[in-house]
Amino acid sequence: MTETEGRRRAPGMSPEQRRETVVRAALPLVSEHGAAVTTAQIARAAGIGEATIFRVFDDKQAVLEAVVAAALDPTVVLQELRSIALDQPLAVRLVDAADALDAHFARVGSVLGALHATGRTGPRREPVPGGRERSVSTTFAAIAEIIEPDRERLRLPVETLVHAFLGLLFPARVGAPAGPRTVAVEDLVDVFLYGAVKP
C-alpha cells in the first residue's frame, strides 16, 4: 500500500466520526486562514482524501458552519469547569475557572475573527433555537457550583456573585473594547473576593 492510499482510507469510521475528524482538523486552519482555507488543506490536516470531506459535508460552507458550531460548543469548557476540585480555596477555584473561560473565548474569537476578516459574515442556516440561552445557563450553573461550597461565608447570593464575577472578567461581552487582558486574572479574583479598599 502506498502512503497516499493509506492516507486516503479511513476504515471503520462512521460518517459522524469522519465529520468530527474533519472539524477537528479544520478548527486551527480556519483560525489561521478564515474562509480562505481550502478543502485540500483540511484533508491533508485530517489525513484523508479531499473527496472524503464531501461524503460527509455538502460543500466547504457546510464545513465552515460545523467549525463555527464546534468553536461555540461549550462542552469542553463545561468539562473543564466541572473538573475543578471543590476542596481548593475559593480564590484558586475562581482563577482556574477564569483560565478555562478565557481559553474558551479565545478559541471562539480566533475562529469568528478569522472568518469575519476574510469576508464571511454569518451562517446560511438558522442557529438551533435556544442554543445560546442553554449555553449561557449551563455556564452560569457551572460557575455557581464552583462558588457554592463557600455560600455560608458570602455576603451576597451565589447567583448574584456569578453575574458579578463574569461581568468583572469579561467586560468586553457587555460593551467594553475587546483586547488583551491588562489586569492579571489573579488580581481580578482578589478584587472580586476582597475588594479594592484595605480593611
Topology:
Layout: H1 3-8, H2 15-33, H3 39-46, H4 50-56, H5 60-72, H6 75-82, H7 90-117, H8 131-147, H9 158-169, H10 185-194
Word description of this protein:
Keywords: DNA-binding, Transcription, Transcription regulation. One of its GO terms (molecular function) is transcription cis-regulatory region binding. The chain is mainly alpha-helical and 199 residues long. The protein folds into 2 domains: 66 residues, Tetracycline Repressor, domain 2 (Orthogonal Bundle), CATH 1.10.357.10; 122 residues, no CATH class. Helices cover 64% and strands 0% of the residues. It has 10 helices and no strands. The relative contact order is 0.10.
Span from first to last CA?
Answer: 73 Å
Q: What composes the largest sheet?
A: none
Number of domains: 2
- Low-confidence sequence ranges: none
Number of helices: 10
SSE-based structural type:
mainly alpha
Secondary structure tally: strands: 0
Percent of residues in helices comes to 55-70%
Relative strand content = under 5%
Report mean pLDDT, rounded to a whole number. 85
Organism: Asanoa ishikariensis
Keywords: DNA-binding, Transcription, Transcription regulation
Domain HTH tetR-type: 16-75
Protein name: Transcriptional regulator, TetR family
